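lol ok so funny story. i was supposed to be doing the assay writeup but got distracted and ended up predicting the structure for this chain instead. priorities right. anyway since i did it might as well share w the group, maybe its usefull for someone
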Amino acid sequence: MHFRFNEEQLELGRAARRFLEVESTTDKLRAAFGSDELYDAELYRRIAEELGWLALLIPEEYDGLGLTAVDLMPILEEMGRSLYRGPFFSTVCLGVNALLLGGSAAQKEEILPLVAAGEETLTLAYSEPHGRHEIDAIETHFEERGDEFVLHGVKRYVLDGVSADRVIVAARSKGSVGEEGIRLFVVPGDAEGLTRKRLPTLDISRNEAELIFEGVRVGRDAVVGADLDGAALLESILDRARAALAVEQVGGAERCLDMAVAYSLERKQFGRPIGSFQAIKHKAADMLWKVESARSIAYAANVAAASDDGLLLRELASSAKAYASDAYFFCASENIQIHGGVGFTWEYDPHFYFKRAKASEELLGHADFHRERVARAMGL
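and the output, tada:
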């Protein structure tokens, strides 16, 4: 398949790079380390009001731009490149996609305009303390009591779970097993019975949380995809997010390559730049190969997402997530090797990308999980 961005998409990417190179720097990441600030709320507001990125996937009838996953790719790639620290991915790639795929008309009308304006953030809570990624591993459960649902359980590793204004929660009917009985619910972040705890993370550019549901009550209007198969809906949401994350990983991997090449041209050994040595050239060539291969499969996955081809997306999303995870970690590791001893020091940037690469590998399913998923889809 031959793919090429159109001029509008290319300009979107160029504008994103210009903006993020100034507003989302590693110096700002260092300054935020150890603070109670979850993200730069003013920067997030500007992304909504000045750039309109939060409205990109939202249909026009809900104050959005009505574009597709392909149009989102240039922004995600640049966010990965700059290690953007904010709830964009959790809100747009998880929350908005959940509502677009399964939300009721009332839910979309109430929530999506607020998201487009930058007034509310969203996230998806599906993973649990055991860390498994399979849908049938969900243990959080609900009970029906009249016109209400009562939620009990613990969710962990929830992206931006402490700051999200609304959390879309995956739970199963009490007593159900496997993929039966799965449903999604929109829960206010300040709901009675919901406790949110910030978790320590390897990657300081992302926030994760543990959410404890102790008798949280929601009405029938909180159900997402009431007439849909809950497990299939959740898989569709996650596949779109996996495809999006793969593009973000490509941006980070390419930044590692750029850093490594730049450093190899300025660092001298034996009276010449280390980039002139064949061993370093081979490392850079291998990194470039990994980046471009990951980009190809990541782009293909998002084209499938934009075309609503669920079966193709399932295979491509897992393929992209697995390969991009491997490629990013490889490039981040080689970047540190080329930098030598300074590569893991606080003052230099490579360690930030190494940590993001490792954390992103685990997010939404590690590479081995996705390789097994692709094998099953192929009937192996």
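Strands lie at 122-125, 141-145, 148-159, 166-173, 182-188, 194-199, 208-219, 223-224, 268-269, 272-273. Residues 257 and 287 are 6 Å apart (CA to CA).
back to the writeup now i swear
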